Amino acid sequence: MTELESEAMEAEFDTVAGWTEEAVRALGAETAIPAGCRGSGSEGALRWLADRLALRPDGRVLDSGAGVGGPAAWLATERGVRPVCAEPMAAAVRASRRLFGLRSVVAMGQQLPFADASFDAAVCLGVLCTTSDKAGALRELRRVLTDGARLGLLVFVADGPLTSAAPEGNEFPSEAETRELLAAAGFEVLEVTEADLADSPEEWTRAADAVDAEVERRHGQDPAFVQAQQNSGRVGRLLSDGSLRPWLAVATAVATGRNARDTSPN
Ligand SMILES: C[S@@+](CC[C@H](N)C(=O)[O-])C[C@H]1O[C@@H](n2cnc3c(N)ncnc32)[C@H](O)[C@@H]1O
């Protein structure tokens, strides 16, 4: 397994990922996508991004930091694409393969095991704030995308000081910093909005809540559960008091000439 920047994050993104898979198996396949998207957005946020990614059924789509694969599975079901997932936590990768049949690989976003210009679109949802090397992760996304490809992002941004403790290991950029990082990596921001994280159908929320309750029933006493709850509770508090904003953006990979066809005479 690849290491994250804190033990609490590994509890949240590895151990709890495995428990989520277990709970989905106990409760039924219809809970899988809602539970698999719990780590980040809402169905409304996914729809907003998907509508702007210029997806084609035969297009090559990457989800970097895919977690257990809920968003990638939603894209496959709703938009007919076959995404490839990259995610550092082995239990999450296993869950994405077994729950959704996704093609998933264990990899850090800063070291993607793909050739240059391998993808026509990518998403990276709720990931940038979990790594201090944001520039490296964005540079790598640019490298594996073709010129003109679209990138969909969900970033929890903080434009001022936080009013309470940040979850361990997280570093929230401001919107201005995120825009600078994107430009430096070779992306041009096309459109942004603020996600409404409550913007999911009622049955989706009910299913995700049921999986959370099942995980708690089975593992509520485990120190990893307590640690993961504390971390996600901190994000929840910062979002509800407005210290953090769920920022959605679609950006285009600016042409570098690197993967353009060579038309020079010699
Ligand atoms: C909040 S979760 C979001 C998961 C998924 N994208 C979703 O929207 O449901 C953040 C994910 O980023 C992953 N992650 C953390 N550091 C990363 C890095 N350096 N590169 C790629 N992924 C990373 C974590 O393991 C975790 O699965």
UniProtKB/TrEMBL annotation:
Assigned keywords, A-Z: Methyltransferase, Transferase, Ubiquinone
Source species, domain of life: Bacteria
Pfam family name, one: Methyltransf_11
Keyword Transit peptide: no
Annotated SUPFAM superfamilies: S-adenosyl-L-methionine-dependent methyltransferases
One BP annotation, GO: methylation
Record bears the keyword Transferase: yes
Positions of the Methyltransferase type domain: 62-151
An example molecular function term from Gene Ontology annotations: S-adenosylmethionine-dependent methyltransferase activity
Name of this chain's protein: Ubiquinone/menaquinone biosynthesis C-methylase UbiE
Organism: Blastococcus aurantiacus
Phylogenetic placement of the source organism: Bacteria, Bacillati, Actinomycetota, Actinomycetes, Geodermatophilales
